Amino acid sequence: MTPRTQDRIADSGERVYHTVVIGAGLAGLAAAYKLDRAGFTDFVVLEKADRVGGTWRDNTYPGCGVDIPSPVYSFSFNPNPDWAHNFASQPEILAYIEQTVAEFGLDRYVSFGTEAIEATWSDERRRWLLNTTQGRYVAQFLIGAAGPITEPRLPEVEGLDRFTGEVFHSARWNHDYDLTGKRVAVIGTGASAVQFIPEIAPHVAQLHVLQRTASWVVPRLDIPFPTPARALFRWMPGTQRAVRFGLDSILRSLSAAMQHERAARLLNPIGLAHLYAQVRDPELRAALTPLFTMGCKRLLLSNTYLPALARDNVELIPHALTRITERGVVAADGSERVVDAIIFGTGFDVSHPPIAGRVRGADGRLLSERWAKSPEAYLATTAPGVPNLFILLGPNILVYNSFLDLAERQLDYIVDALTTALERGIETIEIPEAVTRAFNDKVQHALSRTVFNNGGCASYYLDENGRNFAAWPWSTTRLRKTLSRFDIENYTQTQSAAEPAGHAHDLATR
């Protein structure tokens, strides 16, 4: 049995592992399971917090929940028959994550309270050297599982430091501040805002919602799973697999529609029908009508957001925030609203993943420096100049489906890579710049016809240069097939000085 983390300290004071995984969210825990199942037990998952869960641990705002059906947004190796609804809430998801960790004993691989400050590739040692809050770790392979939605994004707005009231981001909700009877401004109308606005609207005195751009809101088919259905899922797992397959098929069809702007445009009437059914005021409805094709920006699922905006104590301001005064917020039309609190629902800085600023490659440059113009990778998983590094949910992997499923598909690719390296006695693997360039040229060419690039909006899929760094331009099926086998022939390799022998399990655990 592999010694526990605290027992693996070498004479140098370093903790040495075959593989280090950064982050114990959904992706990092899936990595732990898949590595363990493949026989790789010489690894550790570094988690800066004292609890697993990642984004589902950190986001606790009112109404927080998943916007992908729960049966799909689940570990493939641990389907949950006990989801209460088709769309699970944050507490339910976090409980499910912790139940998975307990059931499969994944906590034995997690080193809590250990933040990776910087990881540097050593050409001399052919290893990753990680400086952490708990000392030095050394690993042959590094898997970045911190995810793209970890760091809240606050806009650079004049006067924020002068405001005398309460300020927080939805991802860092201040539960100690009572919003009851307060005058509140909400900045942003994205996926988080459409969930918490209906929750707080009945309790505040006045709610001012500043909307830069109207987005498509579609019905949230949040049907409950009654007790008999849950019993059926438990005693006949095939029924739940069938439900998962059916929901996945719908999501794959939606992704297929997004590959062509004209096809995506056919979905606009769904959003318009939902808007007309829920908003009767013509002026408000006009302000909420998007001027771009559905799918160009992230779809928002809600049955309660639009009605909340029609409440007497809620005001939709169809303008961006321009500055903040000591007493309130000023919109682009010059009008000011005096408020007691400002809540930013402005999302995350997905174009600058935090891990990129903590990984230093063979030439000494940070990955974030390589990605200064735009994030770019091969199959969203590997990048030139950073040998033996794998990134989960990297650039150009977004499709309308479960992020967890995408991460698991990448992990199958990564585990195949590690197994291949061990069996063939390969010490380092790296994707060449030429292969990466050719792949990304094809991606960008294919994206040119999609709704993401042609839908008439400016979304977070596009970086500051207008380049689409986020979306996958082809079908979900193609993505899964591409990641089903590690294409060693496209990588440069360095043989190990040691003789290759035995099976992956034997090599990984010795």
Automatic annotation (TrEMBL):
Coiled coil: none annotated. SUPFAM superfamilies: FAD/NAD(P)-binding domain. Signal peptide: none annotated. It holds the Pfam family Pyr_redox_3. This is NAD(P)/FAD-dependent oxidoreductase. It comes from Antrihabitans cavernicola.
